[in-house]
C-alpha cells in the first residue's frame, strides 16, 4: 500500500522514515540470510556486531535444568529496575569482573531490556529536549537513534583524526584536548551540553583506554559538570591474555561518582544480543529513581531475569569454560581476518578486543565509500561503512569477524576479490591517467597501501541512484552450483568458467562465487588461489 | 542522600517525581508484601490487577520440556516487531479467540514488552508532543504515564456519570453523544485530538461493550478522523459462560481499518504480567513501520518469545485446561467478594468480566476518598481509589478479587470492618446532626446504600497531612498473635479483647486483627461474626 502520511504525526513520519545505513544493512540481511543449505546465495553479515562463535557453549549451559524454573513472583509485576535477585547477581558479577575495590551494591543497579533502552532513559532524565551529549567520532552509530527517537537529544561530534598526532599519538587518538575543543565549539553554538559518552573498549575502534586516560576523561567531565556515560559492553571481549582491561568501576575514588554511570550488557560479552538485557551502575539516586519511573517501558520477562541470574552466578562456567574458549575462538577469527586483510594490503587497527576490525579501504569521498558498501552488498556481503559511524575520513569499514569460519571465509573472499579488482583497475588507470593519488600518511598498522581513485566506469556506477539491492542482487548474482556436483567437479567447472570469463570487464561483479556451508571449506581457498592466478 | 536537582534535567526531575496513587500503592505493597508465615502482618494487595489464581496450572505448563529450548536465532538480534514465529502464533491465536472472519496476518502484528510500551509507541507515532487523545473516565490510570512520560501526549477526559441516564442507561454509560461532546470541548480548547482509547472489557468498570456499541464508537472515530486504540487485554477474562465477548477483530468490515489498532497481551488473560508481552494488531503499514523503528527500546528475550509461542499454539491446553479452570476460579472469587460487599451494603457494578469489582463507598469529596484509601492502607489493605482512575464522582474503589482465597478473606474482612465502623459512626452522627445526606439515585446494582458524611473526628483525621504510612502502620498495627496459640485459644483471646475494647473510639483503627495464612481460615469468618455481634 502506498504511504499516506496523514495517518501519522510529523514525529511519527519522521520516526518511520528513520533508516540509516546500519538499519538498512540489517534489514537487507534479515530478508536474505545466508544459510549453507537453505539459502546458500544469501547475504553474509559482517556488519552486525554479534558473537556467533560460542553457540555450542551457550546452548549447553542454557538448557541445563536450572534454567527451567517458574515461581509466582516471576510471573507477576516486579520492581521496574529488575528483581532484587537479579540486581544482586549483577552487582556481584560486576564487583568481580570489574575488580571493584569495594562490593558494588544491588541498589545502584538498574537492569533494562538492552543498552538502547538505557541510553534512551538516561537521555530522557539528564537532558531536556534539544540538549546535546558529546561523543568522539567514529562511534557506534545506533546511539544517535537511541538518544533521539524518544528523548529528542542530539549528539555533538568530537572528530578523531585517523592520522596519528605527534610521537605518542595513535590513529583516532582521543585526548582531553579534543574533548575540551569539542565542548568549546558546542558552547559557541549556544547548545546545552549535559554529558559525554565514553566507550571502552571502543566501538568501532576496538581501542582499550588505560585507567589514566579514562580518569583524565572523567576529570574533564567533572570540571565541566558533565555526566559521563561509560559504555563497557565489550569489557570481557578482550582476547589477548597479556592485555588487561580496566573498568572505571575498578577505580578507587571516581572524580565525580554522582555523574558517572557505567553500562554493561549480555549482548556482546555473553553473545546473547537476543536476550535483550543491559545493566547500569550508578551511585546517583536521583538518576536511579527517575530511571525506575521509565522502567515500565523497558521491562524484562521474569523467567529471563532468572536465567541471566543463574548464568551470572555460575562463576566457574564463566571463568573456566566460557571466557577462555570464547577468547581462543575470537583470537583465531581475528587472526584469520587480519591475515587476509594484510594479504590484500588493507590497513587496519590491530587491537586485541571486540568482535570487529576497523579497516581502511580509503576512499576520496563519502559517496565513493557508500558505493563500495553497495558493491559489497550486491555481492552478498554486508559490512558497516565509516559514515554510519560518523567517521570524519571516508573509506573506513568495520568488519565483524566473530562468525563461523566458513561465513568468515566466504565474506572475506568476496571483500578480497572485489578489493583486488579495484586495485588492479586503479593501477592500470593510474598508468594512463597519472592522477593525483596522494600518499597515505595514516599511521595505521600493518600496511601502507595508498588511496585510490576510481575508473570512470566505476564512478558512473557510484553516481547512479541507490539501487534496489534486493532485486539487483537477484538479477546479477548467479550462484555457482557447487552442491549439485562433487567438490572436484565444481572445482573443474569453476576453473573452466574462470579461464573463459575472468578477463571480461564485469564478470566478477556479476558472478561472485559462493560455496555452500555443506561443502569442504578448503574448496574456497583453492578457488581463491585459482582466481588469483587466472587473473594474472 | 538528599535530592540534588542539579543532576537531572527539568524533564528528568519531573519524571522522577511522577508518583501517583497507583504507583504509591504498589511501592508500599512491594516493601511489605503479606506472606502467611514470613510476613503475616504485611500488606494485602487488592489494588494491582493480577490474576493469582492460576499459578498451579501455569507452573505445570511452563515447566514442560518444550519450554527449555535454545536456537542460535533466539540468542541473536531479530526483527524488532518480534520473531516471525511468534507473530505467526499471535495472528493464529487472535484469529481463533477473537473469531476473526478471515485469518489475521503475522505481518500486521507487532509484539512488544507489554502494553505500556505499545501505548507509548503508538502515542509517539500518531501524535506530536502536546497532542491529545480522548478517553472516557474512569479509566486505568497508568495510561496517563504511558502516553506522557516519553511521548509527551496528554489524555482528554470524557467523564462518564455514575448515575444511569434514562431508561436504557447504565451507570458510567459510554455513548457516542458523550464522545462527541468531549471532542467538541477539546476542540474548543484549541487542542489537536488524534485518537480515542476504547477498553473492552473495560478497566475499571469491567463493562463489556456489544459489537453494535463498539461499531458506533469506531464510526464516531472515523467521522472525526481519529485513530481508535482498542484495548482488549481482558478479552478472555469473562467468567460467565452465557456472556460472549466480541472483539473488534471479529467485525467483518471495520469502519476505518487503517485507523483501528487492537491491543492484547499476556498479563491479564494468561496471568503473566511478569512476562512483559503485549501485542498490537493493525492493518496500517505506516504505523507498523514506525513502531518497528521504536522496537529496539521494547524488545523481548528470544527465549521468552519461544515460550509464549509454545503457549499460544497449545490450543488444547488453553481451551480445555486453562480457560475453563481460570473462569471457574474467577467466578468463585467474584462471588465471594460481591457477596461480602452485599452483606455490608456496598453497591458495586455486577459484571461477569475482569479481575476486579468497581464498588461504591460513596464519599463527598476526593479528599475523603483519599483518606479512606489511606485508612485501608494503614490497616494493611491496599485498594485503588477512583481518583487514581480519574473518576468524576468521589468514593468509588476498584477491588481486585483474583487472589488466593485467604488473602481475599483477610483483605475483605478489613474492608468490611472499617466500612461497618464508618457506617455505624455515621448513623449515630446522623441521629444527632441530621445533616444533609442526600438520597442516592445511582443506578448501581445490588444495593441502595446512601452516601454518608463523616464525624468530625474522622474528618480531622482526613484533613491531617499525608501520613508516612510505612512507619505509622508499624506503630499502629498490633498483630494478634494467632500463631502462638491454638485456634480456639486465639478465638477466646480475640473475644475477650473484643468485648473489652470494641467500644473504645479508635480501637479498630489501632488493632486490626489479622490471621496468618498458616491458620484455619474459618477463624476469620468466626472472628468476623463475633466482631459484628460484639459491637451491637
UniProtKB/TrEMBL annotation, chains A, B:
Q: Which GO terms describe its biological process?
A: amino acid metabolic process
Entry's Gene Ontology molecular function annotations: pyridoxal phosphate binding; transaminase activity
**Gene3D superfamilies attached here?**
Aspartate Aminotransferase, domain 1, Type I PLP-dependent aspartate aminotransferase-like (Major domain)
Query: Bias regions of kind Basic and acidic residues — which residues?
Result: 454-465
Where is the Aminotransferase class I/classII large domain positioned along the sequence? Answer: 50-401
Q: Which InterPro entries match?
A: Aminotransferase_I/II_large, Ethylene_sulfur-biosynth, NHTrfase_class1_PyrdxlP-BS, PyrdxlP-dep_Trfase, PyrdxlP-dep_Trfase_major, PyrdxlP-dep_Trfase_small
Which Pfam families does this entry report, sorted A to Z?
Aminotran_1_2 (PF00155)
Give the span(s) annotated as Disordered: 429-470
Q: Tell me which CDD domains the record gives.
A: AAT_like
Name of the molecule in the record: Aminotransferase class I/classII large domain-containing protein
Gene that this polypeptide is encoded by: accs
